[in-house]
Xanthine dehydrogenase, molybdenum binding subunit apoprotein
Amino acid sequence: MSALSERPADAVVGTAVPHESAVLHVTGTALYTDDLVHRTKDVLHAHPVQVPHAHARVRDLRTGPALRVPGVVRVLTAADVPGVNDAGVKHDEPLFPDEVMFHGHAVCWVLGETLEAARLGAAAVEVDVEPLPSLVSIRDAVEAGSFQGGQPTVRRGDVEAGLDASAHVFSGEFEFSGQEHFYLETHCALASVDESGQVFVQSSTQHPSETQEIVAHVLGLSNSEVTVQCLRMGGGFGGKEMQPHGLAAVAALGATLTGRPVRLRLDRTQDMTMTGKRHGFHARWRVGFDEDGRLQALDATLTSDGGWSLDLSEPVLARALCHVDNAYWIPHVRVNGRIARTHKTSQTAFRGFGGPQGMLVIEDVLGRCAPLLGLDAATLRQRNLYTAGRTTPYGQPVRHPERLARAWQQVLDSADFAARSAQVAAFNDASPHTKRGLAITPVKFGISFNLTAFNQGGALVHVYKDGSVLVNHGGTEMGQGLHTKMLQVAATTLGVPLGRVRLAPTRTDKVPNTSATAASSGADLNGAAVKNACEQIRGRLAQVAAERLGVAPADVRFTGGVVRGIAFASEQVPWEEVVRLAYFQRVQLSAAGFYRTEGLHWDSAAMQGEPFKYFSYGVAAAEVEVDGFTGAYTLRRADLVHDVGDSLSPLVDIGQIEGGFVQGVGWLTLEDLRWDESDGPGRGRLTTASASTYKLPSFSEVPEVLNVGLLADAAEEGAVYGSKAVGEPPLMLAFSVREALRQAAAAFGPPGTSVDLASPATPEAVFWALERARCTEGAHVDEGAPGVRPDQPDPGAPAVRPYSEQVQHVLSRT
Ligand code: MTE
Ligand code: MOS
């Protein structure tokens, strides 16, 4: 055990405590940024002027009519920007653009005494535009050669030789959708300026330090003149990693120009039409297997739909390429990546950050190829899992692959997989119109930021004279329970009860130069920094206590709020007493903690290195039932086993696993982002811009039986108190549901039917998939079966029917 991972016997970490704000959440008393508006005097409200064109040049912008609207105070335009008119870190995102780059792009903002005044003012602004040709779909962009950013390749071995030597080679294509974050709290910023010109922005941001930097560069100020605070977020899911910056800058600009606080909160439709989403991807692939179904070679090109600007598209793509292997050993690999530039919102981070997209490709490949190889999918997957001594295609050794095998076995056992597979087969034999599927899929997910520099964390811990403790750290709370874990870490390190420790909101003037709370690394980075700060204080207090107890400082123990010597018979001094003594001896009771993850290196040009501190593992089994008349389905049961190391906070971790899984099920089966791809006047419009048209998973999609297990004996040597990150990886356990749907659809066809399933696998998509399975040559078509219902296509027609373009994939033996 390393000093970082070693856990004391009576640790507060590892105890099952509720989320630190659970009571506030459920009673409605938790404060979010927008709640502060009602506590702030003289607030102005900001409203965007969104232009309804996918692509257009702004010829003229007349703000005069808006200023005549009662209650309108000011219109913010590019001319008002004292610094850099750009909202991003890539300098490709003008904050006040003169070219409309997507349907709903905001070209200026109106400030009003009330939100209603600002809204009416925004409606009165006159914008003359010259429409320009637009690229809406990923296919449009590929055809037009419209790409942005780098085009990296991960390679190992000799793909052509590997394919040549393979017993079976298949090729195919797959296009799949992105995902709307749909955090309950939409984007929000509240900015004010003090008497010295210091700008204070409260923002729903996962990355306060970067929000601070962007606000500063827009205003032409130094970073020290801007402070950003994040109380908490009502969900971020990656959507608040980069997207809050420009919105915070607009509020801050308004505040500096008017001298009054400015509030900017997007309503749901604005949030959905203006801010970025998970990237949809297109993949083209060739894959080779040996006689036994062992992967030999993978050649693939992944194209992500980046939207109008780069934002985080490059690192998202890098993570996709680094996860295309998921949990499988592939000797020869060549995966190219590129980012399409389309006239859509700028797609961004979303839980998994490209990892899910890369992994979905290989899971789709295996799900489609298993029947063609004459293997059941579970066998094919298990046979290809990483084993000892293997490295990833980018050169990182896969440590602890036995955990993958253990998790796999644990799911087989706890889900009673073999017996239930037989039951599913028997059910399907007896049931012509309803079929079931049971699938098992693995997850391997790399933890750390690919960009090595981001792997640092900071904390500031104060112990007050009365022994109470206040913790600040660089991470933000978005519901994931980071603050709960940090309280537990501080209490463990200082050896005090949890109730002695309090946490202060995240602010850039307490802990500077922080990384985004992202890549699931919040607890790893900030936890190690909190621990470091607490250890400094504990070390100083040990000197004081040693003198008081008459023992050596190394023999002083802090536990449960008392300080004592190592001997069983030692006197016990209350923590408060030691703190008081230290104060009178003028011993510093405050410390800044810091942590950098050791051992990481990454060459982003060569796409080689060891970018991850460790891998998180998980395995899931899911069972579904599909109705052959409609494609409607239910998720009957899911069994999840996930590796969280030695959990810092088991209730929090289980909540993350459940939530991540359901969010993944949403992405893969329900949530269907549609843009108007027609040439009509609405071209480029997001047609699913509200909860009525964009279907989210809710209570009713949670499986009737949902078993979540934490992998036992899984302490992680390299992370704080032996824990592992949890935030993102469980989302990918949802592959099991998609694969179960594929298997259920296949059951409508003859044995060995390979099913090509669209993503999201909505009931409609499942219907078309099972319809094609039913019509596969050799299929047993029951007279009077659903395929011949009068309103359905004739089953005698060609096997491949026209269906939604997005599911037109080709799978062929080459
Ligand atoms: N859980 C909740 N409840 N809300 C969120 O917004 N974001 C996810 C995950 N879990 C999120 C969540 C994402 S995208 C990440 S990267 C991690 O939490 C970030 O927090 P962590 O690093 O503390 O795990
Ligand atoms: Mo999470 S997508 O890394 O914010």
The pocket of MTE (ligand 1) is lined by residues 235-238, 351, 475, 478-480, 482, 517-523, 656, 659, 725, 727-728 (CB under 6 Å). Residues 22-29+456-596 form a domain with the Aldehyde Oxidoreductase; domain 4 fold (CATH 3.30.365.10).
